[in-house]
Write a structure and sequence with these properties.
The protein has one domain (26-253): Rossmann fold, CATH 3.40.50. 39% of the residues lie in helices and 23% in strands. It contains nine helices and eleven strands. Strand 8 (210-219) and strand 9 (222-232) form a beta hairpin. The longest helix has 19 residues, at 131-149. The chain binds adenosine-5'-diphosphate and magnesium ion.
């Protein structure tokens, strides 16, 4: 809270009011994933960076796509940044699996899509490009696009490959802090998906406001999708692993544990 506000609140109402005001400092942004918000005491804090980690095919892109689609349905403006795969591929996947028509939402001006793999942006990663320079340019691109479109919700799909190429861990840390700082400064509520590769995901999770992990559990001969919350700054979280379901309607969190 702004210090002046805090003093004013203390003068007017005493310290209880300050506590009340502080606890409502972050309002929540509903994820749009049935069953998820209960795990984190009501949804993502507005204006924060939230990572979704998991190996390939665990449902990261579906989770984040649903977060965007839901926000737009609720009248918010969305932005998707695709650093690794082409935006066309993502749009096709979301349309054919769940009927979420991102191309149409883009035409209607409700969704901005930034395709980093588009040669026009001249940001492509080549073997020769210095990954640190690349990430610095990427951060600037994100800053510019957020200023232009002013979205309420942001989804960045799979950042891992970029950071993996940076060799020194301290540089990964500071580049993560720079990027996440830029995102927070814009006020947008963001979901960033990250793959599990050589521990790089840990740096990104460390710098984020919340971290959610998607997995597959082997129960006998069966693989079951699962989800748990690793952390959420300033919030209660559920301490249990839950079953994650993906169907034609999208993704949802069950009240069951894979082990019960
Ligand atoms: N309509 C559907 N019903 C059930 N599962 C689906 C459906 N559409 C896609 N899937 C599953 O969702 C998974 C894709 O998840 P995705 O979010 O792309 O993974 P990643 O973590 O790699 O981003 C695949 O395993 C796919 O089989
Ligand atoms: Mg994906």
């Amino acid at each position: 809270m702004h210090p002046a506000l805090q003093i004013a609140a203390q003068l007017v109402c005493g310290s209880e009011m300050v506590v009340a005001l502080q606890s409502s400092k972050f309002s929540r942004s509903k994820s749009g994933i049935p069953g998820y918000d209960e795990l984190v005491d009501g949804g993502f804090h507005k204006g924060t960076v939230n990572t979704i980690t998991g190996s390939s095919g665990t449902g990261k892109t579906v989770f984040a796509g649903q977060f965007i689609n839901y926000g737009i349905k609720m009248g918010e403006k969305g932005m998707i940044i695709t650093p690794s795969e082409s935006a066309e591929y993502l749009k096709r996947e979301m349309m054919s699996s769940f009927g979420w028509d991102f191309s149409n939402l883009e035409k209607e001006g409700k969704l901005a899509i930034v395709d980093v793999t588009d040669p026009v942006l001249r940001l492509q990663k080549s073997i020769d490009a210095d990954p640190v320079d690349f990430l610095i340019n990427f951060r600037k691109l994100v800053e510019r696009k957020l200023e232009e479109a002013k979205p309420d919700r942001l989804f960045i799909d799979d950042l891992t490959a970029f950071f993996m190429a940076v060799e020194q861990p301290f540089k990964i840390r500071s580049l993560t802090d720079d990027l996440f700082g830029t995102i927070r400064a814009s006020g947008v509520t963001s979901v960033v998906t990250i793959g599990t590769a050589f521990g790089t995901n840990q740096f990104l999770e460390y710098g984020a406001d919340s971290a959610t992990v998607l997995n597959r559990e082997r129960i006998g001969n069966t693989l079951i999708r699962s989800i748990y919350i690793m952390k959420m700054r300033g919030s209660k979280i559920a301490n249990s692993i839950r079953v994650l379901d993906i169907s034609d309607e999208g993704i949802s969190v069950s009240s069951l544990s894979p082990y019960s």
